[in-house]
Queue: 2 jobs
Job 1
Amino acid sequence: MTELPQGAVIGILGGGQLGRMLSVAASRLGYRCHIYEPGAAPAGDVAYQVTTAPYEDEAALRAFAGSVDVITYEFENVPTSALDLLESLKPIRPNRKALAISQDRITEKSFLNTLGLQTAPWAEVNSETDLRAAVEKLGLPAILKTIRLGYDGKGQVKLEAVAEIPAAWASMSNAACVLEGFVAFDREVSVIAGRGVDGSVACFDPGENVHREGILLTTTVPARLTANQHSDAILLAARILNALDYVGVMGVELFITPKGHLVNEIAPRVHNSGHWTQAGCTVDQFEQHIRAVAGLPLGDGHRYADVVMENLIGDDVLRVPELLKARNTAVHLYGKGAPRPGRKMGHVNRVVSK
Amino acid sequence: MTELPQGAVIGILGGGQLGRMLSVAASRLGYRCHIYEPGAAPAGDVAYQVTTAPYEDEAALRAFAGSVDVITYEFENVPTSALDLLESLKPIRPNRKALAISQDRITEKSFLNTLGLQTAPWAEVNSETDLRAAVEKLGLPAILKTIRLGYDGKGQVKLEAVAEIPAAWASMSNAACVLEGFVAFDREVSVIAGRGVDGSVACFDPGENVHREGILLTTTVPARLTANQHSDAILLAARILNALDYVGVMGVELFITPKGHLVNEIAPRVHNSGHWTQAGCTVDQFEQHIRAVAGLPLGDGHRYADVVMENLIGDDVLRVPELLKARNTAVHLYGKGAPRPGRKMGHVNRVVSK
């Protein structure tokens, strides 16, 4: 596929806030978006077309594929059967390999280790016996995670003592799991990296993340990194994208430790920790992803301001009236209706330089 | 009306690029937009709903008004009959007075002069005899303009010699006209000014405009103004908005002369010369307009970068492949299909500082 022409339609699997901001970015480049979403779709408010249907609806999937020029996603847990069908009809970017790897924590860690990249020490856990052996090997504290479908702190439990093993295992309902050993890290950063059809890679400056109850709360740029740590982070992210022959934007979460960078997780899509790029960059992560998916040259990820991004989670959104009055503050709301605990309702970008 | 709640629907009359960018801005604040447009509507690609109907279709206008919480416009030449009907059903912001004034060059100039503001010298022209008298009074060169429906250099002709009078008048097809005397100005600037429901006013930094064949080509911020010229421009714009009890964003075009500022034209809507605010400001003119119309507090118009906005007119859009590769350059395309001479196809914002 060469460059998508003006007016072409980009299909997006998933209609949440990421799809919403992707659709807006696509419009800046003269493209239209068709959203496929089984549930409520805030992205539909700013999309050319919306299909509301389950991922098991073959007719809906076929009609969707027929109406678009290329398919991307804002959500990595699309069922394999749907992807198989869609891929037979239209190109999917980023490719299936990236999706398959990120859908399974063990596949992901194995892939990263094979690339020569460090991860937290880990062990596969399929039974309470496995869990005891893993704790023996990795020590405590440690975190038990389901290998699939976890996000925003869901599907994981922290283990602090051997006595907690039975309850921890029981809470996983026999799902395949991985135990991750404790990592004494200085800070967590994300690299938002894009790779084009031509193989060129462009990374935004690493952002420093702070979580609250397992959910990203703030990302700050610049991150507190030495020049070497900064370039190592970017080279490492580029190595991952190149190895996957990746096309699009990926979020790469890193633990910065005295012994080098460990990869915590990769997300084959635009990422919450990249929302800061909407302020202080001429091309944000959403447009960068659309450029890659559309076969356009990657944009300039140069940053011309310092930014703090803060998520508005649950009742945080009640602060909006005050945030709307704040200086140097861009408010982004997702149109999701009533706040629920843990629900991402919006975010703000504060420009802190100049 | 108090603040519009999340999920409320804003009706926009006109579906061009201004409506498109307004709809995107509204989505950032959690609102949805319903576009009313008789013709092709690029705004429809990123709108919640679109009505394609003429402004004479009373049933369509009623249905539109019934589906929205407030009405605004991206285009000032909506027929009076449509506005009368809509206003009886839902609030229109900015108000009808601002529209009535800007729809008629003579009413506009009279209003501005009454406020104590300078305009180019002018005279009403309804016949060739009037035109001769006006040329006698104002001298040459001068510009003959229809009093209604002119934009982007349409409906106007420059007069350089008395011998051109008959042809110039004939070209106006007996439309009511105004002759504007020549102004020796140093530069033309625009102030993009917003006023909220609470009467507060916020202005973006004045931008300096360059035209090509009567159409805006570039706007540069900062404009080359002394500190006094800068503050005079902003105070003058604020005076206009206050006098009209205006709610929304207005574009105020000024000629900067050794004898002070002259008002060239006002536009009761977001304005092409404010597109630069999409780069280097946390809140752009589109969001500022939506905030005002929705009854929210105005945003911080503080500028944190220097910017040059360039319109892509007609075949300029063929430069897009090269512009997409340029550093510090944000490309905005309107999804309009094939280029035509004089047609605004998109714009670029170049961040020139830092």
Job 2
Amino acid sequence: MFVLGIDPGLTRCGYGVVSRTGRRLRAEAAGVVRTSPETDLAYRLAELQEEVGALIREYRPDHVAIERVLFQVNVRTAMQTGQASGVVMAEAAAAGCVVALYSPNEVKSAVAGWGGADKDQVEQMVRSQLGITTPLRPVDAADAVAVALCHLAMLPPESGPGRSVREAVVR
Amino acid sequence: MFVLGIDPGLTRCGYGVVSRTGRRLRAEAAGVVRTSPETDLAYRLAELQEEVGALIREYRPDHVAIERVLFQVNVRTAMQTGQASGVVMAEAAAAGCVVALYSPNEVKSAVAGWGGADKDQVEQMVRSQLGITTPLRPVDAADAVAVALCHLAMLPPESGPGRSVREAVVR
């Protein structure tokens, strides 16, 4: 199973693709989609739509997990982030993916053990869970991988190579 | 020239297509795109994306004018409306349309003469300007036509059938 995690944003939108085979987790890709603050909003959103569509076509995720946008101090930034998340949600649903949303606290709790974890702690836990030895930068990419891991933690485990698929209790 | 006006929303998204030939304005279409509150958010946004794309393919507007989303008392509704507007903006820009945003006050001022006009006054002025004799309901459709009219009022007038395109001042 492939999960695309998204940390939505307009200037930097983090993405991370995590695969799960049995109990084994693997980071398939991580990065950011950037759009220029000097470009008009509608064209930035169209660029984001195009890039997210390209990621979905390349990695064919079964599920897309997106961090929920909460209202921050900067109202304009929150609205732009919300618009970016709307574009990502529409693109994922139109491509036939299951779409799930998680609050920042849910992501931190699932990955680092508590909702108050800071970005560095989240990044370290993400790398530890996936066996990544180099730093995950920019931090939006690590956040996106964390959203994918949070989603996988909520799903029932798949049966792995060492376990029988059929477990007969009555024959 | 064709302008598609949009009053963004998730449960009801108003649309109105107005054409201008010379000085003549004509309502080509008006209505609402509805999505069900019982459907998951991502699928509602994907439905809206699909319907707006279909409107753009059908009417081939040169410009798409969208009412800017301001923060209302209900934060959740404002975020959903923002997400809907993001989807519309991305779809319009991806289709190659010029995209313009107007605040509710700008729309009311342009159409009804002052920013404090209520919805009924806006609806009556829209019908008066376009010679529509039947009520424009739901009101979201009238609002969307008003956004298109506001945009057209901001553009320089086109030369009409009765006027020469070339106006030579020095020969």
